[in-house]
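Data availability (excerpt). All sequences and predicted token strings are deposited with the supplementary files. A representative entry, J domain-containing protein, is shown inline so that the format can be inspected without opening the archive.
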Amino acid sequence: MDPATAARVLGVSLDASRADIERAFRRRARLEHPDLTGDATAFAAVTQARDVLVRAEGWRTAAADPPRARTTGASAARRGFDLPPPVLALLCVLLVAGSLVEGLASTSPFAPLEPVLRSGFLVGTVVGYALTRRRVLGILSAIAIVTTAVATLVWVSFGSLLGGALMAPAIVLLVLHGRNRAL
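Structure token line:
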């Protein structure tokens, strides 16, 4: 595809700035994306047009990509670390054991149901975040961690402290594992 055709596909002029090219690409990509009732060939044409214009403008392809896309390569810096499956399983067992200890030994007026439900939610969100790295699970696990900390401070008991002590290292390691996945 030549630059004139690429400019026509994106609806920009040949001397468009990088920002204009990116803006036009995002607009057209939203319209033509195959997951959103668009056509796969039209989406490929839009992507190719963007690449042609970026190269014609003299920009390196890597510099034209958003920063998030540049850090997904094999040489990307990782913010966490990978844990082997047996360690992940052990951490999950620690989380479940900690939630059961907290639920059974809690002095909460709603014990054992409330601590077990709250801890179960915490376990589910932390493990889900570690395995999928979905942002919503990370946010929900942070809310569950804060809620558990507040509940432990309000209804201080040996069971709550012991349950928290069992769950804390597992939570930290699972969150770090989740931060390393698919950046």
